Amino acid sequence: MIDEASIKGNIAELLERIRTCAQESGRSPHSVKLMAVSKTRPASAIRAALAGGLSDIGENYIQEARAKQEELSSEAICWHCIGPIQSNKSRTVAEHFDWVHTVDRLKLAKRLSQQRPPELPPLNICLQVNIDREPQKAGVAPEQLAELAEAVSSLPNLRLRGLMAIPAARSELAEQRAVFAEVRQCFEQLAKQHTYMDTLSMGMSRDFPAAIAEGATIVRIGTEIFGARD
Asked: Signal sequence span per UniProt (predicted)?
């Protein structure tokens, strides 16, 4: 049973925390968007998040997301793909999502561009950077970002918006800020060439205050909105 009141209350509390974090960093509260990460959650939980004022929904699993998209087709939702994309799922993503945060190879970007329906606006793209260079984690190495960004920016049905990162877990605020600062520096370097880039997708439940302090424009929150998974 989904507790809509709890979800709405959690969102209100998070938005207040985001506002405070932004203001303490000298930023406008409106410069940070809260995305609800709804993997494994039912469509009813997403409806509760929408009732709480959110419209950006992040999904990790394509097949699961499609079922929810169909159930919620009458709702005004901006759908973000924030999980890995297998080649056989790229068409589904290109046809049914507004954003992809996990582009880390040109082959995938080309498929998304080719498969994006012409009647839809360009697909918003974030390049996923493996800032800690973890071998088990997806993402492009920082030194390879410039080449990938140049190639992606030339594809006709994509719009390069910025970077996404999932750093390794760190417990200390200073350590969290340091690694998010590295991501921001990568972004700033790219933005010298790609001046239209405007998005830093970084920060989750455990570390979003540090991410906001270092320039995050989208924070991706699941547990603190929907509660612990069963």
From this structure: none
